[in-house]
Amino acid sequence: MRIEQINIGSRTLLTVNGRKRGTGIFKELFEGSVPVNELGLPGDAICNKKYHGGPDQAIYLYSLEDYTWWSEALGQNVPAGTFGENFTTTEQDLCEICVGDTLISESVTLQVSAPRIPCSTLSSRMGDKTFAKKFMKAGRSGAYCRVLKTGSVQAGDEFAHRPYSGSRIPLRTFFKDLHGKLNADQLSQYLSAPIDERTRRDFSKKIAASQ
Predict the structure, then answer these.
(1) Which residues pair with 174 in a beta bridge?
(2) Does domain 2-210 have CATH number 3.40.630.10?
(3) Is the whole model's pTM more than 0.90, yes or no?
């Protein structure tokens, strides 16, 4: 995987469902080297901490290949950074990458933790009330990562992909299953993987309820 662009967003007001909300989804291109810490990138605004940010969603990746797909599907240019990712990437299929996979540069190690779930903020950002549903249908979620090794990165940095040695759950499958009905065995499979804590709490409640 290669980082093509680094994006950082300051707090901006956006009208969502008729109300003004603070959001960090509007990213700006960052030039040069940037520190990567356990909670992400310095200066990158996290406004709704109930659903965004934290150690398991420290870094969000979205690929140029998926932006090309969206540009063709929507019939308009969708530039890098539009979906609020921190790193715009190439040379890695983020749909088929699996939970627990690690991405390793000379300085930083990331571990894939979850797909991105679209919300009304993304729909408002796109000026399309139905966009969250389109995003779900497309199955191109991008990848949330936790930071296993802090350091610094810049555009052009290469990351080696090291597959997780345990149960292989592609993000495309994870993305779909978050809105599906899973049985106890499926829930147990997820709970045995290094998924994000928000999903872990939800799936733990579901498996407890099924017993």
Answers:
(1) none
(2) no
(3) yes
